[in-house]
Design a protein that fits this description.
- The structure is a single chain.
- The chain has eleven helices and ten strands.
- By secondary structure, it is of the alpha/beta class.
- It has three domains: 93 residues, Orthogonal Bundle (Arc Repressor Mutant, subunit A), CATH 1.10.10; 95 residues, 3-Layer(aba) Sandwich (D-Maltodextrin-Binding Protein, domain 2), CATH 3.40.190; 101 residues, D-Maltodextrin-Binding Protein, domain 2, CATH 3.40.190.10.
- Strand 1 and strand 2 form a beta hairpin.
- Helix 1 crosses helix 3 and helix 6 crosses helix 11.
- The radius of gyration is 23 Å and the shape is globular.
- The N and C termini lie far apart (49 Å).
């Protein structure tokens, strides 16, 4: 019989690429991960990994087993969701327990307070715990069980990477704006952005989706932005724009209450926010309740 915990490790190796990365993420030693994967190979009776120097790659059998592991782990999530629903029905006391939520900064400020207030009114026994995380960190933390639900976003020029371990439902679609201190006259996104090709730009930290969106949108317009400041908080970004420190792309949630003197030019590009969770967990009562609270906050 194949051990489910070892199947999780094999799946993580498929996602992360190295045993060292799996060990660091799951707070094990690399040798412990190697021992568990070796034991899984003995259980499977076939080589799952091919070792080349310090690197390992999955064999065809290993790749196939990862696909089966995804299906097995999804069914386990479904079982856990059904059992949680049964416990709730039998107790008659409503939902209880901890629900761990990941959210990017704009959503933490603009969406979560109202959503958590609604959740507290409907399900006072639930204990939400929020971690502010960039969407690029969400998938591994959901897979590892560190988060139960997460708000993630994607941009027109930065689509979400598919992950067979996760599922998601749409929450919000918001337009993007170009923030400047002078009105712009260009028609169309490319022409509008080109009017700022020689200006200094303000973008998020490299490695984030917001940073990639700024760079790719400008490149699509025909130039590479000269980034002067790296700032993740959109309120701070707009304050910097207001004092002439540069121009910036900001989503609608980040453009609320702009400082005096800042002009927001609407673009046709969008940012889309989704609620992500482990595949199979969509029917868990706590996940259902949180999604309902988030949608009520958007309304």
């Amino acid at each position: 019989m194949l051990d489910v915990r070892r199947l999780r490790l094999l799946r993580e190796l498929a996602h992360r690429g190295t045993i060292a990365a799996v060990a660091e993420a799951l707070t094990f030693t690399p040798s412990a991960i190697s021992q568990q994967l070796t034991a899984l190979e003995r259980e499977a009776g076939v080589a799952l990994l091919e070792r080349t120097g310090r690197r390992v790659v999955l064999t065809p059998a290993g790749v196939a087993l990862v696909r089966h592991a995804e299906a097995v782990l999804e069914r386990l999530e479904q079982a856990a969701a059904e059992l949680a629903a049964s416990r709730t029905d039998l107790s008659g006391t409503g939902l209880a327990g901890t629900v761990r939520i990941g959210a990017f900064p704009t959503a933490t400020r603009a969406i979560l307070p109202s959503a958590l207030a609604a959740l507290a009114r409907s399900h006072p026994g639930l204990d939400p715990m929020v971690d502010e995380v960039d969407p690029v960190e969400v998938a591994p933390r959901l897979r590892a069980g560190e988060l139960d639900v997460a708000l993630v976003h994607e941009y027109d020029f930065v689509p979400a990477e598919p992950d067979l371990a996760l599922d998601a439902v749409p929450l919000l679609d918001e337009p993007m704006y170009l923030a400047t201190v002078h009105p712009l006259s260009g028609e169309g996104d490319a022409a509008t952005l080109l009017t700022c090709r020689d200006a200094p730009w303000i973008a998020s930290t490299p490695g984030t989706l917001c940073h990639a969106m700024t760079v790719r949108a400008c490149q699509a317009a025909g130039f590479s932005p000269r980034i002067r400041h790296h700032i993740d908080d959109f309120a701070t970004v707009l304050a910097m724009v207001a004092v002439g420190q540069g121009v910036a792309l900001v989503p609608e949630l980040g453009a609320a209450d702009p400082p005096e003197g800042v002009t927001l030019t609407a673009l046709s590009m969008h940012r889309r926010t989704r609620v992500a969770f482990r595949r199979g967990a969509g029917g868990h009562p706590a996940v259902v309740a949180l999604i309902a609270a988030l949608r009520s906050a958007i309304r």
